[in-house]
Specification:
It contains eight helices and nine strands. With 222 residues, it is an alpha/beta fold. It binds adenosine-5'-diphosphate and magnesium ion.
Length: 222
């Protein structure tokens, strides 16, 4: 699913260069569930954004679902992301004026009106226990419930790969654990690959494998 070889992201700031992320070798196979750890500022979010095609690597190779992202234009990467990737952010990024069903449907970047899309949104929301909150807006939901909506939105397109950046945020550990269990169960049932950034060892322990970004940095050939 993911093959990364000597990838770096460098930002230029005046005369200085900031290495935001570097990865020597990383391979993640289909259906694997991987926790990504590393100290703050080590480049976890940047790596996730490179895998998502949001950030283009400055050098090296990032292959996702058989496509070389470093060779694709921004619009190609946007289309690629819509077709293959579901994202869950720490802040959820739910839109306030829209209710739960509408927020989930906003994730359906293409074929939003395709037959079955709304039914799938309702089914997902019901599966995560929000069958009686379909028409609540984000402000009318608890943090854990908003996070469930964000997970449904990430899954609506049936993405092969789910990327989550510290999705458990600051909520209480018990709720966070429940929601993570749910995400991993849904991903397993539907055969998705999951890469999740977390700083919570207990959450990482629920995943099949933990990758420490610090271990990947040292291998980069300069
Ligand atoms: P993490 O998610 O592990 O905390 P990030 O990937 O957000 O780390 O950032 C890694 C490093 O790259 C940080 O030092 C950060 O300041 C820097 N960085 C991230 N994005 C940018 C940017 N757009 N411009 C300049 N520096 C950046
Ligand atoms: Mg981060």
């Amino acid at each position: 699913m993911i093959e990364i070889h000597n990838a770096r992201k460098v930002y230029r700031q005046g005369d200085d260069e900031v290495v935001a992320c570097q990865v020597g070798e990383l391979t993640i196979v289909d259906r694997e569930q991987v926790a990504l750890i590393g100290r703050s500022g080590s480049g976890k979010s940047t790596l996730l954004n490179m895998i998502a095609g949001i950030v283009r690597p400055s050098s090296g190779s990032v292959r996702v679902a058989g496509r070389e992202l470093s060779e694709m234009s921004e619009s190609e990467r946007d289309r690629f992301r819509g077709e293959h990737i579901g994202m869950v952010f720490q802040t959820f990024n739910l839109l306030q004026p829209f209710n739960a069903v509408e927020n989930v449907l906003l994730g359906a970047t293409f074929g939003r009106k395709a037959p079955g899309t709304r039914e799938r949104a309702l089914e997902l929301l019901t599966t995560v226990g929000l069958g009686d909150r379909l028409h609540h807006r984000p402000g009318q939901l608890s943090v854990g419930q908003m996070q469930r909506v964000a997970i449904c939105r990430a899954l609506i397109n049936q993405p092969a790969l789910i990327l989550a950046d510290e999705p458990l945020g600051n909520q209480d550990p018990e709720t966070g654990r429940e929601v993570l269990d749910l995400l991993l169960r849904l991903a397993r049932e539907e055969g998705r690959t999951v890469v999740m950034v977390t700083h919570d060892p207990a959450s990482a322990a629920l995943m099949e494998r933990t990758v420490d970004l610090m271990d990947l940095q040292s291998e980069v050939a300069s």
